[in-house]
Amino acid sequence: MLGLPTETEEDRKGIAELSEKIARRYYQIPKDQRHGKVQIVASSSFFVPKPFTPFQWARMCTKEEFLDHARLVNRTFKEQLNRKSLKYNWHEADVTVLEGVLARGDRRVAPVILKAYEKGCIFDAWSETFDNDRWMEAFEECRVSIDFYNTRERSVDEILPWDFIDTGVSKEFLKREWKRAKEETVTPNCRMQCSGCGVMKFGGGVCFENKNSVC
After folding, report:
1. What is the pTM of this model?
2. Helices (H) and strands (E) in the chain, counts
3. Are residues 35 and 49 in the same domain?
4. Three-state DSSP class for residue 46
5. Same domain, 201 and 122
6. Cα-flanking dihedrals φ and ψ of residue 188, to 5°?
7. Quick check: helix, strand or coil at residue 178?
8. SUPFAM superfamilies per the record (predicted)?
9. Judgement on whether residues 208 and 129 belong to the same structural domain of the protein
């Protein structure tokens, strides 16, 4: 995953470096015990903040930032000693940008979807039929800004389009988790300690307070 909040260049390079470590470990095996050359394929998707998660307030990277991150990882792969045994793939940035708007969009995005459909965007879940230009035309004609939905960090006090939906997990808990995520603080396992997410009211599950050990 590339583009996570608090992600560093070191984190991105680590994808290639970990792949290299795996290849090295393989080539430490005696040659007569190996089954030919190893081929390690690493793939990255791009981070899309989702509703009902602590990252629902997070800023999402732009297409250019995503591609810059992927190119850095790709360059780092090519610098590795066992680069011939390594391969790196990444997700399509255009699709990710669209996913970001659809994930956190409000009612103003509905006309964009309709307009894109009218332009022929029907089977766009398949990369071979995805037409980014038509989607961009739909956003422009409907005067809807992609950056408004994707590239700004929201205030935790902002009213979100999905706030009226009750999933059991409270918004206050998600706020605390958002703060902990930025501080890189780990939340205890629900089996060991209750963190007060609010879902306990449903009963069952692995919740510590309900003293159940299985789902």
Report:
1. 0.87
2. 7, 2
3. yes
4. strand
5. no
6. -60, 150
7. helix
8. Radical SAM enzymes (SSF102114)
9. no
